[in-house]
Amino acid sequence: MTREHRERLFGIWTRLQKKANEQLHVRLESVVVLIGLVLIMAGLSPYFWSVSNFMNILLATSTIGVLAIAATFVLSSGGLDLSIGSIVGLSGVVGASVAVNLGMSTPVAVLATIGSGALAGLINGWIITRGFVPAFIVTLGMLGVARGLALVISDGRVIYGLPDWMLFLGQGRPYGIPMPVLILVSVAFIMHIVLAYTRYGRHTLAIGDNENAARTAGINVGLHRLSLYVLSGGLAGLAGLLFATRINSGDPTAGITYELTAITAAIIGGTNLFGGRGSILGTMIGALIMGVLQNGLNLLAVQSYYQQMAIGGVLVLAVFIDQFQHRQEEARV
Amino acid sequence: MSLLKVSGIEKGFGSVSVLRGIDMTLGPGEVIGLVGDNGAGKSTLMKIITGMYQADSGSITLEGDNLLDLTPGARRDRGVEMIYQDLALAKQQDVASNIFLGREPTRRVLGIPLVDRRKMKRDAQIMVDQLGARLPDLTRPVGLFSGGQQQSVAIARALTFDPKIVIMDEPTAALAVREVQSVLGLIHQLKSRGIGVILISHRLNDVLAVTDRIVVLRQGRAVANFVTNDTKMPDIVSAIVGGGDIAAAAAHEAKG
Fold first, then answer.
1. Inter-chain contact B89–A212, Cβ cutoff 8 Å?
2. Which end of chain A is least crowded, N or C, by CB within 10 Å?
3. Is A331 an 8 Å CB contact of chain B?
4. What is d(CA A139, CA A297) in angstroms, rounded to the nearest whole number?
5. CATH code for the domain of A296
């Protein structure tokens, strides 16, 4: 390839990159990584390339995907929520115990599941914004508290036997598509619109970008942050609902280290760890990358311990590449 | 009639009394220079006017209406704009997002109010052109622009919503010579449109060049209120440092 060719190709690439970023709020690199990963996995495993396996990937991604949406909102506001994995466990146990032990109806149990997550988020946000304790500490504390509470409520045991209507949310397949996938896609669609096209979303990014600028622009930063932690907790509650109904039980140990995977997915998708940039569409691609990676490693019969290592490695690598590009961008100006 | 009337403003942080009863007025089309040493209370006074700080006592009115009970956002809506020294820009967002930060226009799609990006972009372009600012690409994050270009964005933001008062905190401190001239030119432009301007600056030459009056703060009090045309550099320096042996300081400032 001549130098001229290379330059022209590079020009096309940067234009596409810019378009994708502006119109869809997606980093093109992550799409390329996803496609590359799919092709590699398809080459390595004969079982990968099938509709039913793709459905499996989507189903396995649904819980992480919803959590990654929560992580995207909080991270792009310059915050951090480490408690979402534990809230998956807590909310699932709360929902199961309301449905099974108290014998309440499905709508009440669903509300209790999501509501308990939102309540944990409210406590997070309240201490962060009113008590001025760093988000890292507060949500790290909640990671322990929520997990402990889940074990206390369930007495350390898995609560089995959810009512049928609740199970439909996790195991139903209208038109052959698993309910959790439908729920993830709808939530992602709505939250993408919220983050990219509403004032609430724009203000979220502005706060993460320059909190002082947001404040001088008349945005109520404290209240906005508080609402973001409630949103994050509520979405974690929804993820807990999807998980519990999929496995037909409230498991107090559900969702351990899910915050790691969710934050990784958000960052691979282009969310700035330090706030100011993020998109749900990008995060969904990030979540799919994590899903394909895990699914492929499963099909290749790689021990799950190694998968844990792979996820951690990918997180560091994604942030490294992001920072590297950022420095190059600044050097170009 | 005065546009902005500040009377008896007091403010303390803990046991430290920063403002001890400030009075000043600003008329339409008037440019006031606010000068004083570091710690004299200039920034605190401005933050009380914009609503970032609460005053302990005193009153501030805009066209006769009380301002002190309003939130910072509500005061902006009433026409009080401030251009901060650090510019207060969201650097990863583009020009339009910054200009409309906190005041994004919306249009309803299926009853849901969505931010009208197209209108924002269009209006931002118009505003930037009016200012005569040279910004190569409005869709780039403002953090990638030069200092002077970022200043233009901050100014465009302050002027987009028909302000009555514009407060500028050290607008020329970090600028190149030509950019300083364009900021001073802009102040003249605002004046001719009937906008009241408060200019905070340590660069006394700039203050003497564009203001009508100069208010000097010292230790939380307004110690002098000069008419710029009748004032010489030594008078201002003397008021800032508080009399005494000012010959050396005045000579230094006169050298510019």
1. no
2. N
3. no
4. 31
5. 1.10.3470
